């Protein structure tokens, strides 16, 4: 998990930095079976899910381009079928960096329409005063959707739906109802403060709505497996704990915003200090999360 988070931090500084400084040769793909024919893969960047069966491999997210060979090798250990579909949960490079390589194998890339739009143009990330260059055309999704899209693949339903303005404006939740599994992308950082990408229309309120929506899905029960964008495989109780932290942050920071306090004044009051040790990490510290929450709540 620590290496996964470290490379995610580097990704937020730009893919060229990641490629230049990170030795991807040391990263191994870890595979966990979460249901029959369904796996969670962990490596460098965002967590992946993989459905295998007679129809072909169905992959969600693909980390960085240097990881593609390792990802393909890990897939080949559980199926001899090619990847038919690749779904991106959002546009960030630690989830889409392998699009071009995976697409070259014949996989059709699927994502929310805002993912294609953002990948098609340079993106400015104000939190780091950084511009992320557009992706090559061959890395772009070729199938997009606005609200939801369903697949009937490998003898199971895969229901994918968009959640508004949570991590970004193009987030997708991937559900396998018959398998009792949900893949949430970066709408869920398990045990960690999330990155609210305010520059990409992400909001704290959107996070709360999205997490609440997942918890209210009709098939969710105590046995449900939840694949987060980052962090270990989770249960609904883990997701409920995460939601409680987000709601507390919204209530406390939002109250100070409504009082007219500035961002620096809110940071100085440190309204969620009791969570920092457990939930803060080397990229999203308590201060950074407070600032991003303030920015999203003060728009």
CATH class term: Alpha Beta
Q: Element order, helices and strands?
A: HHEEEEHEHHEHEEEEEEEHEHHHH
Global outline: globular
Mean pLDDT: 92
Runs in which pLDDT lies below 50 for 5 or more consecutive residues are: 1-20
CATH topology: the name is: Metallo-beta-lactamase, Chain A
Can you identify the CATH superfamily? Ribonuclease Z/Hydroxyacylglutathione hydrolase-like
Alpha-carbon distance between the two ends: 33 Å
User: Main sheet, how many strands, which sense, barrel?
Assistant: 7 strands, mixed
**Rg from Cα:** 18 Å
Describe this structure as you would to a colleague.
The protein is an alpha/beta fold and 299 residues long. The protein has one domain: Ribonuclease Z/Hydroxyacylglutathione hydrolase-like (Metallo-beta-lactamase, Chain A, 4-Layer Sandwich). Helices cover 34% and strands 21% of the residues. The protein has 11 helices and 14 strands. Strands 1-2-3-4-5-6-9 form a 7-stranded mixed sheet. The N terminus is likely disordered.
Characterize this entry briefly.
This protein has 11 helices and 14 strands. It is α/β, with parallel strands linked by helices.
Summary keywords:
7-stranded mixed sheet; 299 residues; 5-stranded mixed sheet; disordered N terminus; Metallo-beta-lactamase, Chain A; 34% helix; 14 strands; globular; alpha/beta; 11 helices; single chain
